[in-house]
Amino acid sequence: MTKHVFGPVPSRRLGISLGVDLIPRKVCSFDCVYCECGATTKLTVERKEYVLQKQIETELVSYFKNNPDPEYITLSGSGEPTLNLHFGQVIRFLKRNWSHLPVAVLTNGSLLSDPVVRKELMEADLILPSLDTASQEVFFRINRPVESIKIGDYIQGLIDFRKEYRKKIWLEVLILPGFNDSKKELDLLKDAFQRIKPDKIQINSLDRPGRVEGLRGASHNELLQIKKYWNLENAEIIPAALQRKQLSSYSPNIEETILGTIQRRPCTVQDLSTVLGIHVNEVNKYLAVLEGRKIIRSIRETRGLFYAMKEQTEE
Ligand code: SF4
Asked: Based on the domain organization, do 174 and 252 belong to the same domain?
């Protein structure tokens, strides 16, 4: 079983994407209230070789020997990939060996204020950073970063990166009603987008319940209103969770095991990842489909978010 190369998973933004996880769960510079991977256990900006580059390379070679090409190879996973000191070398290894496949990096963007990190990203084909707020107060409410990260430096890092990086940048903003959808917040965000100048601004909603009380996904109508308010040519709404029939890599066996497991007892994403031996991101894709079909439901407990079967009588 591979440990750091996972999927391919169906991605709403990238199609069928092979994930490469360079970080142990959950090392991140943020502890976002909506994180699908659970609470951050090591909140840090320290860059280290958290996962050995050699191990990643061995897993990649083995994957491509035995499997068809995905549409994208994506550095993503259960933490912030740019914290891995050797992520640039992994990108170069990918481009050397599978130059026909585009490499994307899913990042929270917090390390882009570091010129070394910006330089290491240059060989990737597509960067997908996120920006959920442009004010320090809401930054601490939503993303809960390492205290030393200031919103101004974070946005400036994105601006500097845009000036240096000639390929595509798709900036994601997750709309969280009650957190970042006030007029003041939306105006600050619009101003930041206009200064950053990404190729696309992707307006997204939560697929799944978040980790704190009161957090909910924005409805499609709410997203439409915000898109209209911003009136930016390069803004688009990310479609809702993919349906089972749209997922070419959807395995009925995995779905069956998930349902069989949570029928016996409610489980967290991490429990299911351990039972199935697949990455949490992959488990999350199945849970999104099952929740969309109203087969399962989530329950918030002190140990995290648990998934259980939805009773026939429940709404
Ligand atoms: S930046 Fe990503 S991995 Fe880190 S806490 Fe936020 S959502 Fe989770």
From this structure: no
pTM to 2 decimal places: 0.84
Rounded to the nearest whole angstrom, what is the distance from the C-alpha of residue 312 to the centroid of ligand 1? 34
Beta strands in the chain (DSSP E): 5-11, 15-20, 27-28, 42-43, 72-75, 103-107, 126-129, 168-174, 200-204, 235-237, 296-301, 304-309
List the residue whose alpha carbon is closest to atom 7 of ligand 1: 35
Tens digits of per-residue pLDDT, 4-42?
998 787 777 888 889 999 998 889 999 999 988 888 999
Q: Is 125 exposed, middle or buried (0-12, 13-18, 19+ CB in 10 A)?
A: middle
281: containing domain:
242-315
Among 191, 216, 240, the domain-final residue is 240
- Tokens encoding 129: 């950073």
- Out of 200, 221, 240, pick the residue that ends a domain: 240
The HSE-up count of residue 114 (CA atoms within 13 Å, CB side) is 14
Mutate to test the pocket of ligand 1, among 21, 25, 27, 28 (most ligand atoms within 8 A of CB): 28
